[in-house]
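Section 5: illustrative case.
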């Protein structure tokens, strides 16, 4: 079963192979005691599949998965809670995750940590440094429930960033960094049908094969995967209008720059 999980990841995310191999090894190493990895930073350009890969890994393995966008977060209490003496105080994201899943080793996904807001009074980076250090993680106190210590040392933290230089050196040093390359043309040919399949599933439509000509066309474009999904959805709608079914998808259903007609007028 473990081998099948990672074979699926390799097939669906061929450009993530180095990270897939690492996670495979750690899963095999710890299969008798429960999955846990040191903090991992997934570095790569936007819309390359970082979040999708992490969620898919959790889905295939059955590991509880908690997502938190760090873009714009300016205060540590988002992660570590707010003292009850404050109005509207509540537990932070870490304690809330433990309460929700009630397991010692969830996978906590921190998206875009290079975009946290810097506030010298309440800098969330200080909280991250403690959360990502094994010694301090063994006795974590949420500010909202200060009389209870949580051992979060078995939590697997996966984080993403687009710009490594935006992170301080102490924060960088907490992570194993995996740089994800842009997929080459052949890898895109393998990924595009999976994006099509996942889109049909999301829309509640019957799964059908992506025509080879459409697959090759999409693999040739310089669109990122987010753009591929958007344009694919638009094209499926055009196929329905023109031929009555999304299964009749064709290359000419895509509105590419080369196909647009720009009408020129005259100015006085």
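Designed sequence:
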């Amino acid at each position: 079963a473990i081998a099948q999980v990672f074979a699926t990841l390799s097939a669906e995310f061929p450009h993530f192979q180095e990270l897939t191999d690492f996670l495979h090894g750690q899963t095999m190493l710890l299969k008798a005691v429960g999955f846990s990895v040191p903090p991992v930073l997934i570095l790569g350009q936007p819309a390359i599949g970082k979040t999708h890969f992490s969620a898919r890994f959790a889905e295939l393995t059955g590991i509880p998965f908690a997502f938190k966008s760090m873009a714009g977060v300016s205060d540590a209490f988002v992660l570590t809670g707010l003292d009850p003496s404050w109005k509207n105080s509540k537990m932070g994201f870490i304690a809330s995750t433990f309460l929700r899943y009630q397991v010692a080793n969830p996978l906590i996904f921190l998206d875009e940590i290079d975009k946290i807001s810097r506030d010298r009074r309440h800098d969330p980076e200080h909280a991250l440094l403690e959360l990502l250090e094994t010694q301090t993680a063994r006795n974590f106190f949420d500010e909202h429930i200060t009389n209870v210590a949580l051992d979060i040392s078995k939590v697997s933290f996966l984080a993403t960033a687009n710009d490594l230089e935006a992170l301080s050196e102490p924060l960088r040093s907490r992570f194993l960094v995996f740089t994800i390359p842009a997929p080459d043309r052949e890898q895109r040919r393998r990924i595009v049908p999976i994006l099509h399949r996942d889109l049909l599933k999301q829309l509640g439509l019957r799964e059908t094969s992506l025509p080879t000509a459409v697959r090759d066309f999409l693999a040739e474009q310089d669109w990122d995967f987010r753009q591929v999904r958007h344009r694919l959805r638009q094209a499926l709608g055009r196929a329905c209008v023109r031929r009555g079914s999304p299964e009749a998808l064709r290359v000419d259903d895509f509105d590419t720059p080369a196909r647009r007609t720009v009408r020129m007028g005259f100015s006085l």
